[in-house]
Every structure is written in C-alpha cells, then in structure tokens.
Amino acid sequence: MFYSLSFYSFVDMLHQIHPNKIRQVLLLSVVILLAILISKEMYFFLGGFMGAITLYVIMRNWMIKLISEYKWKKWLAAITLILSAFIIIVLPLSWITSIGINRIKPILHHPEILTQSFETIHQYLINQYNVDVLNADNIAKINVQLISFARQTIGSTMAGIGNLFVMFFILYFMLVSTFDIELWLRKHVPFKNSNVQKVLSEFRSMVYSNAIGIPVVAMVQGLIGLIGYWIFGVEEFVLMGLLTAVASVMPVVGSMAVYIPLAVYQLSVGHTWQGIAIGLWGFVLIGSIDNVARFMLQKKIANVHPLITIFGVIIGINLFGFLGIIFGPLLLSMFIILVKVYVDEFGTYDSDEKLTILP
To answer: Per residue, what are the HEC states of the chain?
Structure first.
C-alpha cells in the first residue's frame, strides 16, 4: 500500500512539472554527458587548443588589418600569420629545446654525474659550516625528482609535436572565421553587453601578459645568467643559462634554484672568487632583472597579481605539463574574471549600505 501511494505521488508530481522543463533537463543532461565524454577523449589535445586560442588573441588585430585595410584573402592572411608564428616562435624554441635535450641526455644516461656534484657540495657544507642538508637520503630524493622532471620534460616535448600540429590546424580555422567567432560570442555568451566587452578585454590583457610577459622575462633572465656563467668560467654555461630561464617561472624560488647551488658548487671545488661572483651576479643582476622586467611588462600589458602567477603555474604544470607555465595563470585569471562577471550579473548590492573595516 505504501509503495503504491508513493508511486502515485511521484506521478502526480511529474504532472505538476511542465513538459518543457522535463525536455530541457533531459537535453541538458545529454549535452553535459556528451561534453564530458568528448573532453575526456580530447584531453590530450587540450594544450594545442589552448595554444590556438592564445595565438588567435595575439594575431587577431593583425588578421583584421590584413583583411580590412590591405584586402588580403582570408586564407592567405591566415597562412601568412601562421608561418610567421612558426618562424618567430617555433623554430627558436625548437633549437633551444634541442640544445637543452642534448645537454641533459648524458646526465639521464649517467645519473652518477649529478650525484657526484651534490656530494661535492655536501662535503663542502659539512667541512665549512657543519650543515648536513645534502646527506645521502636527501641526495637520492633530489636525484629522483630531478631525473623524473627531466624525463617528463623530454617526454612532454615529444608529445608537444602532436599538439603543435593541432594548434596550428585549429588556429587556421579560427583566423579565417575571426568575424564569425566574435559575432557568435557577442550573441550567445549569456552576459550583458558591457560584461561581454569586459570579459573579452580582460582576457586579451591576460593572454598578452602571460603569453608574452612570462616567456620574455624568462628569456631575459636566462640570457643574463648565461652571460654571467660564461664570464666566470662555468663549463656548462649554456645549459645553466637555459635552466635559469626555466627556473625563473618556478613559484617562490625562481632562478635562485639554479645560481645559488651553482655558486656553492664553485666554492666547493675551490673556485672561490667564481662562486662569490656568481652569487653576487645572481642576486644583483638576475634577481633585479626579474623584478624590473616583470614590473615594466605588467605595467604595459596587464597588472597581474603575483599570487595569480604563482598558483597559476602550479595548477598549469599539473594540467598541461611545461606549457602550463603560460596556460595555468591564464585559466586562474579567467576564473576570477568570470566570478566577477557572475557577481555583476546576478549579485545584489545595496548602494546605501556602507562598507566597514573591522579592527
């Protein structure tokens, strides 16, 4: 009797719901399910898709200028911009990456090289300062982490070739459909026109800040580091310069993760003045260049809070690997922008209410 009453109550409840609501819920459920399945299978190409969006934002104004002012064909303008990106971005990065891989491979094949270097530093710290930081257990852990990171970086580099093809493939169709994409966004994004413009404007600023600012700061720091390492007689000054550039985007420690151990190593092998010089070069020049270049670029492009960069890099590396250095802060910035837009669209605020600061 109880089950029959419950069934009839359920049927009555369904009769009270408008059929359009039921169809809407069913349709949304199917759309969400398909989106999850597609995203799961296409996750491998997420880096390529994000790269295409980033380059599209950077090239958008050039594309419009070539089409509107110079009357180029859409396909010709798109191919020209893609070839320019390939020459300016991909070829130099490929050359730098190949140099880095060639320098790292001997260490991967002979990890004892790294172990001996840390052991030398360990003995120096013990003898001079009685500091037992790099004991056998810690050295083993550091070696495992560094070797694992190097292998993952090389592996992600190889996988990035596939994402590179996907990126340019998607980018071509985005550039060709520039006007259609932006018209569709303005019509279908569920925000007020003012908020649509705000989202697009802030998104462009964030893309420029992350896609241009972070690599430029990294390259400047790496170049300054390379010059200093060469001046002070470091054997692998090219590799150390590349590692300084990569480490510059690491949260909190930054390029200090390279030049401080290198300075200590130089001291431990008896190169006293070189070690002191590298330490001073790192603190005075590399560190200052980081602050000055980052400040100038952020002032010119977008005022990105340092915490967004730090946490964005952590999130991005876990999601995208090495490319997450750029895409991570971008995702976090977009999340904050969308929260602001949501509050503006659906939040309520009493203009007569006064904001008070608690003591």
So the answer is: CHHHHHHHHHHHHHHHCCHHHHHHHHHHHHHHHHHHHHHHHHHHHHHHHHHHHHHHHHHHHHHHHHHHCCCCCHHHHHHHHHHHHHHHHHHHHHHHHHHHHHHHHHHHHCCHHHHHHHHHHHHHHHHHHCCCCCCHHHHHHHHHHHHHHHHHHHHHHHHHHHHHHHHHHHHHHHHHCHHHHHHHHHHHCCCCHHHHHHHHHHHHHHHHHHHHHHHHHHHHHHHHHHHHHHHCCCCCHHHHHHHHHHHCCCCCCCCHHHHHHHHHHHHHCCCHHHHHHHHHHHHHHHHHHHHHHHHHHHHHCCCCCHHHHHHHHHHHHHHHHHHHHHHHHHHHHHHHHHHHHHHHHHCCCCCCCCCCCCC
Q: What residues does each domain of the chain span?
A: 44-188, 192-344
Structure confidence by residue, pLDDT tens digits, 224-255: 999 999 999 888 888 888 888 878 877 667 78
Q: How far is CA 169 from the centre of its chain?
A: 21
How many residues in the chain?
A: 359
Radius of gyration of the chain (CA): 27
Residue 334 has φ and ψ, to the nearest 5°, of -65, -40
Contacts of 62 (CB under 8 A, 6+ apart): 81
**First CA to last CA distance, the chain:** 63
In angstroms, rounded to a whole number, what is the distance separating the alpha carbons of residues 106 and 154?
13
Distances in Å between the alpha carbon of 103 and those of 97, 149, 192, 202? 10, 15, 53, 40
Task: Look at residues 176, 197, 173 and name the one whose alpha carbon lies nearest to residue 49.
Answer: 173
Is a pLDDT exceeding 90 seen at residue 184?
no
Average pLDDT, rounded, for the chain: 76
The pTM assigned to this predicted structure is 0.71
Rounded to whole angstroms, how far apart are CA atoms 43 and 163?
11
